[in-house]
Amino acid sequence: MLKTGAQYIESIKAMKPNIYKWGKLIEDVTTHPATASHIKCVANCYDAAFDPELAPIFTNVSALSGQVAHRWNTLMANAADVAGNAHMKRASYYINGSCTGTICAGWTVLNAHFGPSARCDAKYGTNYHQNLIDFMKEAEDNAYGLAGCLTDAKGNRALNAAKQPDKNAYLHFDKVDGGIKLNGYKIQICGVAGCNYIVVMPTTGFGPDAKEFAVVAACPRDAEGVTIVETRRPSDTRVEEEGWDGIKSGTTQAFIIFEDVFVPDNHVFLAGENEFAAQVLGNFTNIYRAAIGSCVGGQGDLIAGAAIALARANGLTQKAFQDKLTNIVVLNNVTIGLGIGAIMEGHDDGGAWIPDTALAHSNKIQVATLPYEAKRLAVEIGGGIIETGCIPSYKDMTSPIYGEKLMASMDAGSGAEDRIKLARLLEWLHIGGGVPGCLHGGGSPDTARMLVKGATPWEKYVNLAKKIVNIPEDHLVEAKK
Ligand SMILES: Cc1cc2nc3c(=O)[nH]c(=O)nc-3n(C[C@H](O)[C@H](O)[C@H](O)COP(=O)(O)OP(=O)(O)OC[C@H]3O[C@@H](n4cnc5c(N)ncnc54)[C@H](O)[C@@H]3O)c2cc1C
To answer: In the list 10, 21, 274, 373, which could disulfide-bond 230, CB 3.0-4.6 Å?
Structure first.
């Protein structure tokens, strides 16, 4: 089923209020200034299904139903489908100027668990795979927006889940009549305010001592016992103000408190079979870290465009900065291309397509590094007005007492307003909502390095080198410790 943006907004409006910010309950997330711009951005993605140019990017034919559906409600069954995820992420930056979490992580969880849930059923006689398929069809039929919750609070990082003094540091379940109950904290989750359902999965692998933390399940965002608190972000008060200082983007993060949240059996996709936690996590990170290259690439395209426009508003031309602009695009292309390469080199996992591990995680490392250089180059092009604190507020710029003079001081030939708006956009992309998501979003680079290390056949490479120069294979061998 396809929903328009307006129909999607109605579905969110109809939900029970359980989201807080600034110490207060948000009665209607679709109109509250802290969340309305996120909802509007998600709505743009729904509307994209009805735009002839955008529809091929934002929709796909569902492999489960054969019907056209919002792309984020479909199974990624082959490389083209996962590449479609990457292209959609880039395009959603174009229409929203930011990450749009509601159409991202929850969808990825469902896909990542497609293979592991079937293997778990084969081993234990559970019914998780069918539950998952049924829920994916439900999500498609109702055009759900989905948040994906991996990140637990985690407590003391030196201790594993089973050893934490506060068990809530990791989300855990208890079996009850007809389902499970969830307790614990999931934090830093994007797109929660705009989702219809929350999908939870483990943030790490678990041993047999930690079975109660191995849970994959879905519950409505407004389920009894779910409390959501929006995070503070750079420039969030600006977004709530009138004027051009705040970029009305789709960025939103939340902490989620689960207190005895009942999930019926049919929405449970893993509960206790700990050896499958690492499998779903591995698949999740492979999909996510391949596609995220296009997400930050979309942001990079916007950075390049805004930098050129600001150079023009400064009275200069693109030519003056061409080397720097070309470098920005090269940096973008590295993460976009490496991600697409990871997708093309992927494999089928029981009907879902999983990108190549070494390439996907190499991409995560690039994503955590290269965009910072692109942002630095944009600041260099745009000038000091991008660096924080260098333009008076909208209220001052429009003050009846001195506003006219301030605006005159900002005019570099083509009027002050365009120049200020572009400077605010680049300021935001540089140190506001634009930076987060590059480094830890989708997991820390250190874990990616571990996976690249694990997926690389080091000894094979040593032997190749030895063979070229006729060194016997049994020379230069490290003793196993
Ligand atoms: C913009 C943004 C969006 C996000 N959206 C989502 C989302 O939608 N869903 C979701 O589930 N999560 C989301 N996250 C959370 C993200 O996945 C986590 O931030 C990430 O996995 C890192 O976890 P952490 O922040 O708890 O870092 P920490 O665990 O505190 O790690 C900090 C550093 O310590 C290292 N470290 C941690 N433990 C150890 C150890 N035992 N030994 C050695 N080194 C260690 C890590 O590698 C890292 O470098 C988002 C994050 C961001 C920034």
So the answer is: 21
